[in-house]
Structure formats: structure tokens, C-alpha cells
Design brief:
Chains: A alpha+beta (about 160), B alpha+beta (about 725), C mainly alpha (about 425)
Oligomer: heterotrimer
Strand content of chain A: 15-25%
Strand order of the largest sheet of chain B: 9-10-7-17-14-15-16
Number of strands of chain A: 5
Order of helices and strands of chain A: EEHEEEHHHH
Shape of chain B: globular
Radius of gyration of chain A: 15 Å
Largest interface: A-B, 59 and 64 residues
Chain lengths: ~160, ~725, ~425
């Protein structure tokens, strides 16, 4: 085991884990963060999506030893139940969840899109969200929520 | 200790005061709503304490279908109080009524109805108490925010009314008079109470539980269903960092470690340290039809009406559905702890009470020594691996008493070992009379079991892998009208002469159990596809043809609404596009759903795109309109995935579809461009669940639209790209 | 007129004559007439259409002409070439935006000479220099197939060519150099199956278009047939005696690979080869067997050699005296923590089970681009189709990390000399 220093949601952390431990397990276990979820551990479903720097990544595929100084952001960093961020509020407004297990990953994937492409077309949203799976069939609402957040940000809303 | 005494002690210990009143004549059982019949004490369902805290208990579980919110709305409406004033406790064998499984779209019908009834009687009793306390007639009381208000302005709050009294009364069959004032929470799209935590990383799932001193475990499953363990060298595994214990019992193999990823690595190591014999035990068939038809079956006629008719045009067709996966996005997880000979199991099982019985048998323990607490998992869509992993956890808790043991199935475990959706064959034949009506109808459905749920330990996967294995009990089909593989096998149409036979296959090639809709998905697919074939032969519009055979006005209404919203009559076909229609009433007694679909087919690539869907739903009195829409949208999109993409594949020895790469499901690029759900509210009608109403109609509507678009009549699910490319 | 002036006048006349002749020749090279549009699409018999369907798969037409799965053959796919970005065109029988008005003659001329119906020259991104050797019967079969597809409205997208290649008539000069219209001839010393494979490989599947290196002018380097080339920034390995494959190919393996993209002991098909496999999976089985036979006859000429592929087990840590030790250590650490979990297990039906990297051809190729793409983007099955899945690491590995990993794998996975210019290639692949 080695000590790794990570910056997660703006805070510094020191974690003692094996070098090959995927970031997902560090987030959930060492840091007790619930947002990123175990869906497959194979990089195929996106339930574990977080931001590494400005890129969305599947945290189940990121060994903690390779992160270095790059900042990690999870859904917890966007806001909480009392003061949700724009995307989180949009998902609440659209009631964009059934079981909700995939949703934190969806929100992080959408965050990466809106930070790079503030005014995406519907086609761009669909294409960008493709790596993330939803088994309950909530896709229509997820797309509407991302659209809603994009429109809100375009109208000058705060992230 | 009887359940009643136990409950009283529990409640007394909690300091909560409960409601009851002197018992009038006990009404005959069976006249109470079903769940109340089993659990008739009002305080089993609603507790109020002196601090005004109101707790509602339900034996049902939140599966992501919004039931927590909807049940709160039901009670809030009866008590004329804001839903935020209520706390809900769901399925917990130590605290809530036993309502069996959360399944069959029965939660609103069973728990919703029971709670409405119980809450109404609670309110009526409180009103009597308030009237007595304030010495005014009950009819003169207003009710607001948890308090009764006398005409002169004096108030008596719920908490004041029950303080100092411990009351405990049975519900009576006669419903309470309606609450004063207008309907409140019911009929409103109250935002779901569980969503805020889910979008902000709050604790929401069993996977999020972190208990003190918890350890992590992974089970190493055999490489195939029939594999046997020849030898195991566990010594090296024991020496891996963090490993606490290696457990072996027969071919049940597991490793427990102090850290989660260490458990994952140790399990991979353990898998390599094992040598298995893998016989070629699975039958190889060229297609689903020959595989299913090769299994022995026991026929039961479930409908026999009239005779076979001679005159008219005869049509027949065979439809098939492969094994399919629940494929829950979060693989199953459970935590179990054994302390002082008592087990606590945190589980997302759909049935905590049946699970408790099964675990008691598995562990040779008293049922009283086991407590199963439902904590949400990801969507299960039926009997997935939730019970199996609970059994894993319980066995490992027994191997490591004192510490909570968390077992998380890996993706390959879930895809490879969950009970599958059953492969089915449906054979339909009908005679079209000269008057353009169906003159006779024969339907035969061949299917392995749709219910191998616990109850019995033999239905828990790890129990069958032990040195002294439990044997799965012989599966039994559920009788009509609910049915299992024969659910919705009887068409809802007017058929003067009809014969429907359920060919139940007790032995399946692969383990199968309940998957959302059970037999309804395939049966409605078959029936509604065939109705289209009949309509075309009769040269009648498919919607008009269905209306010709329906006399239930609620069915007629949904059919007409879906058609109207789609613009069915004015539709003009464009190249490569077509439209399809389908209707069903789930179980012929639950929700009504009709839908019209437009697709675009690209034959060369095999891509079927869903351009738009218009659906109409009648689910009785609507509690939460947005919740209904959410369920129907989800049901349609999920069904589109099953219908266009999904089949379990296996070779002579093992299941091959062990991850999302091998078993693709619908991604964002293929969801419909437009999907609308139109609701018909029936205030006063019983609540009907909507979780399973749309899947069958969606499948048939898509298939019918594909035929309309390009002339391909596809009768074998899934209508995947390889099939569309090959078809000519 | 005096002698000098006559000489000058003769000089001018000669120059003028030469200019006229040259212009005439150039014109003849660069200009083609338009062919009259046909008014109605003829009908075809089913058998011909079916043969055409098979040929369309063998010819890989949809690889370029289908950009959107919902609109087969409607074109619009951008292809990067050294001369600019070319977009494929609509080859559905739409009258206005597709080939609906093309007679069989126009179609044949396009296939054989790279000339559009209205006379403009097509860019050789369209491999007519291969299709030229198709028999007329096969061309007619293809015509029948395309003319019976659903017509789709999809106007051609404007290309983005670097100057002066936007001037299409220049392609005429390329044709002079590289368009060899001699008919294909079988080799009498080979079997019927081999010859069928040879014909299909050249005239339909155009394997050499990717697997033979190109000259500066973008034509095939005929002196180095099947010596390795490129497509869409992937390196296409040599298929002849210079094959970099660390293990030899058997015919059965090759056949399985062409049909499924997978073969025991060999890497899965990645990049543009995935599309080839998708096409061949739908083609006539005997034709694919023939292609395998022909390809194998070339691959079998690669001499047997000893490579780390004959060993198994995890890749080793760097030698303590490695001149590039810090970078190799980083690469080894990245391999151990990112790759080993799947790649050390060895391929089995399990999902997290992948090829041991000693056997990965990408590490043995003289060009690192394929490896870089695999690491960055992974190898994913086509959307909605089952397959095997390697995730991409572009967002996970920094440029420095990706370079170190590639260098380590090259040396300690394949035992090959370092790739020159590796770091530039890694950076270039990441540039937007």
C-alpha cells in the first residue's frame, strides 16, 4: 500500500491504497462518496463516470496511481440536496430518474459536455451521452434534463 | 412470542404511541383489502406519536418505480396533510406488514388500497376522538395540517389526540366516510422523494451502506452451470494482502477481505487457483423454437369456449422469444451480519419475508432469528440476483460471525447467473369469418417457469452449490387470471370460439424466473402481431379491426386515444417508414395500454429507428400522473431494447453473454425521437399498477410498424440487425 | 523574310505547336464528356441483385458510402487524405442527389475510370484503380444492387482539399501513372479457390489499398506489394514475407479472423479492419474462404522467427540497466495497474480476459499509430452489435503516460527496437 494524494471536489485527500486500485473504489470506500457507482468495472456502462481534469472518465478504469495532480470531480461537487447545481436541478425538475442508479454518471457525463459545448444540439447531446447506459429506459427524460440545463446556462444561469 | 405481542413490545420500547379503538364486530376476512386482511391492525400501518411524527409502514419496496412517493400521497390525501409530514418505512421483516413480493404491478393495488383504507379509518377515529375531546359534533370539524379545528377555532392535533392512550384496533371492512374537503395529494405529480439524494450523491442504495467493521467479499462462481470443482489450492490466496478468510463449501467458493478491491483481486486469484470440470451439458439447437419445443411440457387448457369453425380464411403463425436478461445496471449486492445468533440482512430483494423463510431453511435457523431489511438496489425488473446475493452474504456472515459482510456481484456474475427471462414459443391459429371478424382462435404457449423465487432455500443459487446442496423445488405455474408464462395468453378480444393452452415446462435448460411482465411480453407480442396479420387479411385498418373485437369501454377509450394522438387516420406512409399499433390490458384485469409507433427501417444495415410513439394508458385512479408517465416511458424504451437487441447466447457448456459487449442494450442513439404518454384518469376506480403495462404492446407495435415499413413480418424476437439484414 | 526571322518564326510556331499538342494531351487526360442521364431505372432479376449484394459486401462499399446507419449508401463520410478531406457521395438511386440517373455505362465508367456521369473526375479515395479489374458481369451485378436500394435525398458535401488538389482535372495525371486497366488474369499455377481469392482481393476488397504503401503522389507502390500501408491513420501491417505478426497465421485462423474479427493467438480486428470484418461477415462463405486462402499464401511466406509471443505470463519489469529506466519504470507501472488486470489473464470467454500483449501485432509493427489508437480509443464493437470490448484510455492517460506505456510495451512486450518519433505520434493523435 502507498499513500496517494488526490484532489477531489476541490479538497486534498491522502489515501492509503494499493497502486492498482481503481479510482471508483477509492471514491466509494476511502472517501465514502456515493455518487460514482459500480456498474460493470469494465468501462462499458458509465455508472462510474467522474471528471478527471476537464474530461469525463470511467473511474473503474482509472488506477489511483496514475492520477497525479489532476483534479477529480464527482457529482457531490456540483451541489447537494439543499443547493443543487444546474444539472442536478434540471434532473429533479424533469424527474429524470427511475431507479436512479445511472444518474450520477449521466450528470457527470453531461457536465463534461456542457463545459466544452455550452450550446449543444440535440444530436450532439445524444451522441455525447452514448457511452452511458440506462436500463430503466429513462433516456427521454435524461435528454430533456440536459437540454433544460443547457438552455438555463445559455440564458445566463449559474453552474 | 406471537407477532402481536412482539409488535406491542417493540412499539412500547420505541416509546411511540399507537392508535387503536375498541373493537366493533370483526368482519369476515376476505372483505378487507388483501394486505389488510393479512395484517389487520391499524397501527401496523400507521403510527402517530406525541411529537406529531406520523410514520407509515408498507410491506412493499421502492424499486425505482416511485412507490414510496405514491404511497405517501395516498396516506397524505386521507389525512389531508402535506406528504412531507409523513415518514415511510418500507419492507422490513421486523417492522412492516408482510405484503409478500413487490411484483406483478400490485403495489398500488395491494399496499395503496390497504393504506387508503387504514388511513381513512385512522382519520375517522381521530375525528371521533377530537369531537369527544372538544365536545362538538364530528361533522362540524375542519381538518388542516394534522389538526381538527372546531367551529370556534379550538384545535386538537393528532399528537394531542393520541397522547396518553395506547390504542390498538383492527381495521373493519367498511371503508371510512370520505375525508372532508377536496382531494389533496392524490392526482398530483408530487416530485419523487428519493430523487434529490440520487442526483446529489446522497445515500440511497444498499451499495451505499457502510457499516462499522464491515468486510468485503466476492464469490467465485463456477465457470458454467454444470461445472464441478476438481481441486482448489487456496493457500496462496490466503496469503494475499487483506484476505481475511477463504470459504469453500462444495462448489460455493468465496473470499473475504478487508478492502473492496483487495477482495476483487483475491477472487480473481482464487478463480485461477481452482480447477473445474466443465461438461458440455447445454443442448445445442439452431434456434429458440427447436430448443423450447424439445423440452417436455404439461398442457393445461386455460380457455375453452365454443368450437372450431369450418368456414373462412385460416391463418397461423409461430412466434418466439429467446432467453433475456434483467441485466440490472447495478449488479446485486447485500450485507449480512451475524450477532448473538441473530442475522440481519440488508437486501434489495423484492420479497423480504419470503427471503427470510428461505434463509432460515438455508442456515437451519429460526425465522425469528433473521431480519431482512429492504434497501434500494438498482432496478431489478423482476427476480434478479438480489435473493442469491443475500444468501451469499448470509452464508459468509455465518463463516465470519460478528462482522458485517458485504457481497457485491460482479457484472459477469449478474449477466451469467441471474435467473433469466424465459424463452418461449407461441403458436397462434385463427379463422377469419366472412364477416371480417375472428370466427375461432387457437393459442398454444410453450414456456419454462416464470417463478422460481424463494420461499424455499432451493431457489437460492448458492444453496444449490453447497457440499450438501438444496434442491430447487419443482416449479409450479401460477394460476389464471394472473398466470405466469400464460399471463395475457388469453386475448382481451371478443372471441366466440377460442381455445388457449398453456404448455408448462417444469424443467428449463437454463434457470428462469419472473421478468417484468412474465409471459405477457411474449404473449402480447404474438397476439398483437397476429391481430395485425388478421387485419391485413381482412383488409381492415388494424385499429378498426381491434375495435371491432372490443366491448370494454375503457379498452375502447385507450385504443382511440392512442390512435388519435398518433394521427393514425391521417397518416401518410413515406418510403422506408411505417406505423404499427398494439393494445393490451395487463393480465386482462389491470392497466390498459395502447400504443402507436412509427419506425424507419434501413434494411441494408438492419437498423430499425423508432421515430415516434404515442401511447395511452388507463390505470384507474391516478395517484401520481408523472410517476405513471415515467413508468410507461421506461416500459416502452426498455421493451424497445428487448425487442430490437436482446438475447442470451450460450454454447454447449456455458452462457456467453456475460457483459454489455456481448449483450448490447439500447443506447441513446437508438431511443425514439419522440415519445408521448397520454393518461386517462378514472377517479373512484381501483388503483392499477403501470410498471408492466407497456412492454408487450410496445414489442408488437414495433414489429407491426416494421412490417408496414418494409414488408418484413418478423416473428422471432429480437428483431436485431443481423436478422433484419438477413430477412428478405 | 531573312533567315534569322524565319528561324525565330519557326521557333515560335514549334512552341505553339508543342503547346497545342501538350494542351491537347492534357485535355485528353483531364477532361471527360458527360453521359446522358437515363430516364427510367431498368428492372433486374433477383439473382443478379443478390450477387450484387454479395459483391457490395466484398467491395466494402458501405465503409465509405454509409455515414449514418439509418441512411445506407447516402454518403457524406469525411475521409482524411494527404491531399485534403474528401466526402463520400450518395450512391442510392435518387435522381437528383444520387445515381438514379446513371446508366449502366455511366456506372461502369465510374467503377473503371473514376469518372462521374457528368464527366468530372473522382478522387482516388474511391478505389476505382482496383475496381477497374472487375469483370463486366460483376459490375452489372453491382449496378443492379445499387439501383434497387431505397433512394435517399442526400446532396454531396463539399470537400476540403489543399490547394491545388481542389482542381479535379489534375486527377487525370494520377490516372496516367496509376490507373492500370489491363484485365485481371488468373494464375494458372494456382487453384481455382486461390484465384478467386486473388481476384476478389484485388478487384473487389482492394486489400492493397490499405496494405500496400503509397507513393508521394498517393498511388500504390507496386514494387512493394502488400508491404504494409495505412488507412484512416491506422497502420495496416504487411501481409507478405515482411509480416510483423509475432506468431504465424494458419489458414483456419485467418478465415475465422476475416469472418469474426477474432482468431486464437492473434489480436482482434481494430480500426478500419473492424469494418472489413463486418462486411465479410455478411458475404458469401466460400468467397471469404477464398480470400483467406489467397491472403494466407502471402502471409505464409513470412519466415518463422522467435518472439516473446511464444512465452506467456505477465510482462517483466525493466532491466535495472535500461538506459531509459525512469520512463520504462513508469510504463511498467502503468501496464501493471491499467492493462494487466485484463491482459495478463489470457483470452477466455470471460469478459475481462484479453490477449496477452506479447502476441499483440500492434507492438511489432514498424509504425506506432495503431497501438496509439488502440490505447486511446479502445476497440469497441459496432453500436448495437455484440462483440468484445476494450475501453479507451485517452482521458485517463496523459500524453507522457501514453508515450511511456507505448515505449515500455514495445521493448518489454515485443522485444523490438524503439519507435522513432513515438512521442510526436502520441501528441499528434491527441491533437483535436
Amino acid at each position: 500500500m502507498t499513500t496517494y494524494r488526490l484532489q477531489v471536489n476541490g479538497k486534498q485527500h491522502a489515501v492509503d491504497v494499493d497502486a492498482d486500485t481503481p479510482l471508483l473504489y477509492v471514491l466509494r470506500n476511502e472517501l465514502a462518496l456515493n455518487g460514482a457507482k459500480f456498474g460493470c468495472g469494465l468501462g462499458q456502462c458509465g455508472s462510474c463516470t467522474v471528471l478527471l481534469g476537464d474530461q469525463s472518465v470511467m473511474s473503474c478504469m482509472v488506477p489511483v496511481s496514475g492520477i497525479g495532480a489532476r483534479p477529480v470531480r464527482t457529482v457531490e461537487g456540483l451541489g447537494d440536496a439543499r443547493t443543487p447545481g444546474v444539472l442536478q436541478q434540471a434532473f429533479i425538475d424533469e424527474q429524470a430518474a427511475q431507479c436512479g442508479y445511472c444518474i450520477a454518471g449521466m450528470i457527470m457525463q453531461a457536465t463534461a459536455l456542457l463545459e466544452k459545448t455550452p450550446a449543444p444540439t440535440d444530436a450532439q447531446i445524444r451522441a455525447h451521452m452514448s457511452p452511458n447506459l440506462c436500463r430503466c429506459g429513462t433516456h427521454m427524460r435524461i435528454l430533456r434534463a440536459v437540454r433544460r440545463a443547457a438552455d438555463k446556462l445559455a440564458a445566463g444561469g449559474k453552474r | 412470542m406471537s407477532a402481536d405481542q412482539g409488535r406491542r413490545r417493540f412499539l412500547a420500547a420505541g416509546g411511540a404511541l399507537t392508535l387503536s379503538f375498541a373493537m366493533p364486530a370483526w368482519s369476515a376476512p376476505g372483505e378487507l383489502p388483501k394486505s389488510l386482511d393479512k395484517s389487520p391492525w391499524l397501527d401496523a400501518w400507521i403510527r402517530i406519536d406525541a411529537s406529531e411524527a406520523i410514520t407509515v409502514f408498507t410491506g412493499k419496496a421502492e424499486l425505482g418505480q416511485g412507490i414510496k412517493t405514491a404511497l405517501l400521497q395516498v396516506v397524505a390525501n386521507e389525512l389531508r396533510i402535506a406528504p412531507s409530514r409523513l415518514q415511510l418505512v418500507t419492507a422490513d421483516t421486523a417492522r412492516t406488514p408482510d405484503e409478500g413480493m413487490t411484483a406483478g404491478s400490485n403495489s398500488m393495488k395491494d399496499s395503496g388500497t390497504a393504506l387508503r383504507h387504514a388511513a381513512g379509518q385512522v382519520r375517522a377515529r381521530l375525528m371521533e376522538l377530537a369531537a369527544a375531546r372538544m365536545k362538538v359534533p364530528a361533522t362540524g370539524l375542519a381538518l388542516k395540517d394534522g389538526a381538527f379545528i372546531a367551529p370556534d377555532g379550538r384545535r386538537a392535533s393528532f399528537g394531542q389526540l393520541v397522547s396518553g392512550q395506547e390504542l390498538h384496533a383492527r381495521a373493519t371492512p367498511e371503508p371510512a366516510p370520505p375525508a372532508p374537503g377536496p382531494k389533496t395529494a392524490i392526482g398530483q405529480s408530487l416530485p419523487r422523494v428519493d430523487i434529490p439524494a440520487k442526483v446529489t450523491g446522497g445515500r440511497a442504495y444498499v451499495q451505499d451502506l457502510r457499516l462499522p467493521n464491515m468486510v468485503h467479499a466476492r464469490v467465485v462462481r463456477p465457470p458454467s452451470q454444470a461445472a464441478s470443482l476438481i481441486e482448489l489450492d487456496a493457500a496462496a490466496v490466503m496469503r494475499l494482502p487483506g484476505v481475511v478468510k477463504v470459504v469453500r463449501d462444495g462448489r460455493f467458493l468465496a473470499v473475504i477481505a478487508d478492502g473492496e478491491y483487495r477482495a476483487v483481486k483475491a477472487a480473481a486469484f482464487l478463480a485461477r487457483a481452482a480447477r473445474w470440470d466443465m461438461p458440455a451439458a447445454l443442448p445445442v439447437h439452431p434456434d429458440v423454437k427447436s430448443l423450447v419445443m424439445a423440452q417436455p411440457s404439461e398442457p393445461t387448457t386455460i380457455l375453452e369456449r365454443g368450437t372450431r369453425v369450418g368456414q373462412g380464411t385460416k391463418l397461423s403463425a409461430t412466434f418466439t422469444r429467446p432467453f433475456q436478461l434483467h441485466a440490472s445496471i447495478g449488479p446485486s449486492c447485500a450485507i449480512a451480519q451475524l450477532v448473538d445468533k441473530r442475522y440481519t440482512v440488508w437486501t434489495h430483494s423484492q420479497g423480504v419475508f419470503p427471503l427470510k423463510s428461505a434463509l432460515a431453511e438455508l442456515l437451519a435457523a429460526d425465522e425469528d432469528a433473521i431480519r431482512c431489511i429492504h434497501v434500494e438496489g438498482s432496478g431489478c425488473y423482476g427476480h434478479n440476483a438480489a435473493d442469491d446475493v443475500a444468501a451469499d452474504a448470509a452464508l459468509l456472515a455465518r463463516a465470519l460471525p460478528g462482522r458485517p459482510v458485504r457481497v457485491q456481484w460482479m457484472r459477469e456474475d449478474e449477466h451469467g447467473w441471474e435467473p433469466f427471462g424465459a424463452a418461449m414459443v407461441a403458436q397462434v391459429a385463427a379463422t377469419l369469418g366472412l364477416d371480417g371478424r375472428i370466427a375461432d382462435w387457437q393459442y398454444d404457449v410453450f414456456t419454462p417457469p416464470h417463478n422460481t423465487r424463494p420461499g424455499k432455500a432451493g431457489n437460492l443459487l448458492p444453496a444449490t452449490h453447497l457440499e450438501k446442496p438444496f434442491t430447487p423445488p419443482r416449479p409450479k405455474p401460477s394460476p389464471q387470471p394472473e398466470g405466469s408464462g400464460d399471463r395475457n395468453a388469453i386475448p382481451y378480444y371478443l372471441l366466440p370460439n377460442a381455445r388457449v393452452t398453456h404448455h408448462f415446462q417444469p424443467r428449463a435448460v437454463l434457470r428462469t424466473s419472473a421478468m417484468r411482465g412474465l409471459g405477457a411480453y411474449c404473449n402480447v407480442f404474438a397476439i398483437e402481431s397476429f391481430m395485425d396479420e388478421l387485419a391485413r387479411t381482412a383488409r381492415v385498418d388494424p385499429v378498426a379491426f381491434r375495435l371491432r373485437h372490443l366491448d370494454d369501454p375503457r379498452a375502447v377509450d385507450v385504443v382511440k386515444l392512442a390512435a388519435a394522438k398518433f394521427g393514425w387516420d391521417a397518416y401518410e406512409r413515406t418510403p422506408r417508414r411505417g406505423r404499427g399499433f398494439a393494445f393490451a390490458r395487463y393480465k386482462n384485469l389491470a392497466s390498459y395500454c395502447a400504443l402507436a409507433v412509427e419506425v424507419e427501417v434501413a434494411r441494408e444495415t438492419g437498423l430499425v429507428r423508432i421515430a415516434r410513439v404515442a401511447s395511452a394508458v388507463d390505470c384507474g385512479e391516478i395517484v401520481n400522473p408523472d410517476g405513471v408517465r415515467n413508468q410507461i416511458e421506461g416500459g416502452i424504451v426498455q421493451s424497445a431494447s428487448w425487442t430490437l437487441l436482446e438475447q442470451v447466447r450460450f454454447d454447449a457448456s456455458r452462457v456467453l453473454t456475460v457483459d454489455w459487449a456481448a449483450y448490447p442494450i439500447l443506447r441513446f442513439g437508438q431511443v425514439p425521437d419522440k415519445l408521448d404518454v397520454h393518461l386517462i384518469d378514472r377517479p373512484g376506480q381501483p388503483f392499477l399498477g403501470t410498471g408492466e403495462a407497456a412492454q408487450g404492446p410496445a414489442a408488437a407495435a414495433i414489429a407491426n410498424a416494421v412490417f408496414d415499413a418494409c414488408g418484413l413480418r418478423m416473428r422471432d424476437l429480437p428483431l436485431d440487425r443481423a436478422r433484419v439484414r438477413k430477412a428478405s | 523574310m531573312d533567315h534569322a526571322r524565319r528561324k525565330r518564326h519557326t521557333g515560335w510556331w514549334l512552341l505553339l505547336a508543342a503547346a497545342i499538342v501538350l494542351t491537347g494531351i492534357a485535355f485528353g487526360i483531364m477532361w471527360r464528356p458527360a453521359l446522358a442521364p437515363q430516364t427510367a431505372i431498368p428492372s433486374f432479376d433477383e439473382a443478379r441483385i443478390e450477387r450484387g449484394a454479395n459483391l457490395a459486401r466484398l467491395g466494402m462499399c458501405a465503409s465509405c458510402h454509409t455515414a449514418d446507419l439509418a441512411r445506407p449508401f447516402a454518403g457524406g463520410k469525411p475521409m482524411e487524405t494527404p491531399f485534403g478531406t474528401v466526402h463520400s457521395t450518395n450512391i442510392t438511386p435518387d435522381r437528383d442527389t444520387g445515381i438514379g440517373a446513371w446508366s449502366p455505362e455511366a456506372f461502369t465508367r465510374a467503377m473503371r475510370q473514376g469518372v462521374s456521369r457528368d464527366g468530372h473526375l473522382l478522387y482516388p479515395a474511391f478505389p476505382y484503380n482496383h475496381y477497374v479489374r472487375m469483370t463486366q458481369d460483376d459490375v452489372d451485378d453491382l449496378y443492379a444492387y445499387f439501383m434497387t436500394r431505397p433512394p435517399l435525398d442526400a446532396p454531396a458535401r463539399a470537400n476540403d482539399m489543399t490547394f491545388p488538389f481542389g482542381f479535379r482535372p489534375l486527377v487525370g495525371f494520377w490516372n496516367v501513372l496509376y490507373l492500370d486497366d489491363a484485365p485481371w488474369r488468373p494464375d494458372p499455377g494456382q487453384s481455382a479457390e486461390w484465384n478467386r481469392g486473388a481476384y476478389l482481393a484485388d478487384a473487389a476488397a482492394h486489400c492493397a489499398a490499405c496494405h500496400t504503401p503509397r507513393t508521394e503522389l498517393g498511388g500504390p507502390d507496386l514494387k512493394r506489394q502488400l508491404d504494409g500501408g495505412e488507412a484512416e491513420d491506422w497502420y495496416a501491417p504487411a501481409l507478405n514475407k515482411n509480416s510483423p505478426s509475432p506468431l504465424p497465421w494458419t489458414r483456419a485462423q485467418l478465415h475465422a479472423y476475416l469472418r469474426t474479427g477474432m482468431a486464437e493467438d492473434h489480436a482482434v480486428a481494430g480500426g478500419p479492419m473492424q469494418d472489413v470484418v463486418m462486411h465479410l461477415a455478411q458475404a458469401d462463405e466460400a468467397d471469404v474462404a477464398a480470400l483467406a486462402a489467397w491472403t494466407h499464401s502471402h502471409l505464409a511466406q513470412a519466415p518463422a522467427r522467435t518472439t516473446p509471443a511464444q512465452t506467456s505470463g505477465p510482462l517483466p519489469p525493466p532491466a535495472p540497466d535500461d538506459p531509459d529506466l525512469p520512463r520504462m519504470r513508469l510504463g511498467h507501472e502503468l501496464y501493471t495497474n491499467s492493462c494487466a488486470r485484463c491482459h495478463d489473464v489470457g483470452r477466455s470467454p470471460g469478459s475481462g480476459a484479453a490477449l496477452p500483449l506479447q502476441k499483440a501485432i500492434a507492438l511489432y509493427e514498424p509504425d506506432p499509430r495503431s497501438l496509439i489508437h488502440i490505447v486511446d480509443d479502445g476497440i469497441l464493437p459496432p453500436d448495437g452489435e455484440p462483440g468484445r470490448w476494450m475501453p479507451g484510455f485517452k482521458a485517463i492517460l496523459s500524453i507522457e503516460q501514453a508515450g511511456a506505456l507505448a515505449a515500455y510495451l514495445r521493448k518489454y512486450g515485443a522485444g523490438q527496437p524503439a519507435w522513432p518519433g513515438l512521442d510526436q505520434q502520441v501528441r499528434k493523435a491527441r491533437a483535436p
